[in-house]
Amino acid sequence: MAMKEFVISEAQVETAVLVGLITKTQDERKTNEYLDELAFLAETAGAEVVKRFTQKLDQANSVTYVGKGKLDEIKQYIKEEEEAEREIGMVIFDDELSAKQIRNIEGELKVKILDRTSLILDIFAMRAQTANAKTQVELAQYKYMLPRLQRLWTHLERQGGGSGAGGGKGSVGLRGPGETQLEMDRRIILNRMSLLKERLAEIDKQKSTQRKNRGRLIRVALVGYTNVGKSTLMNLLAKSEVFAENKLFATLDTTVRKVIIDNLPFLLSDTVGFIRKLPTDLVDSFKSTLDEVREADLLLHVVDISHPDFEEQIEVVNKTLADIGAAGKPMILVFNKIDAYTYVQKAEDDLTPRTKENLTLEDLMRTWMAKMEDSCIFISAREKTNLEELKTLVYKRVRELHVQKYPYNDFLYPTYDE
Question: The dihedral of CA 239, 240, 244, 250: what is its sign?
Answer without folding.
Answer: negative
